[in-house]
Amino acid sequence: MRNKFFILIFLLVPFFLMGCRGQRSEKPPVHINPNMDYQAKFKAQSLSLNLPEGTVAWGPRGAFYSYELRDNELKSDSVYYSGKNYSGNWVKSIPIEVTAQLLDEGQKRFNIFCASCHDKSGSGKGIVIERGFAPPPSLHDERILDAEDGYLFEVISNGVRNMSGYGKSISEEDRWAIVAYIRALQKVKSSSYSDAKKYLRTGIE
Question: What is the C-alpha separation between 140 and 176, in angstroms, rounded?
Answer without folding.
Answer: 18
